[in-house]
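One thing: could you explain this record?
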Amino acid sequence: MLPSIRLTSLILAAGCLGLIATGLYMQHMLGLQPCALCITQRIFIIAVGLTAFGAFIHHPQNIGRRLYAGIGVLLAMVGGYFSSHHMWLQGLPADEAPACGPGLDYIFDTFPLQEALTVLLRGDGNCAEIVWSLLGLSIAGWTLIAFIGLALINLWQLLRKQS
């Protein structure tokens, strides 16, 4: 028997929490500092998770359920775009990768917000470096797989019958 729509929303939110906990573990326990695109992807994982948690708490009927799920699909697809872009940067030859920039703290302290957000969304040479991989996939690759899963589950939530 499949989980109810409400339980599936809670599972989605818990999955996003697990993804963020994994990222924080890698950052604080393994010493892997996130680049600008890593932070951007985290923001979209959090957004998908908060949307799913909102659906769990609100427990709306048809139109509301589809709205939450549609927003979840959209957020996961945008997050997946940033993961794909991150993987593209990582696949560039060293001489074609963008130059490394200053740290995010410096960027947000020094540059206007619009420029800082541009760096956050575009990435820089720091994003081209692969600092960890598993089964041949970088963190960005695994995050893309997670976004695909989040999008598919939200799409299922969008299309399934009320239960």
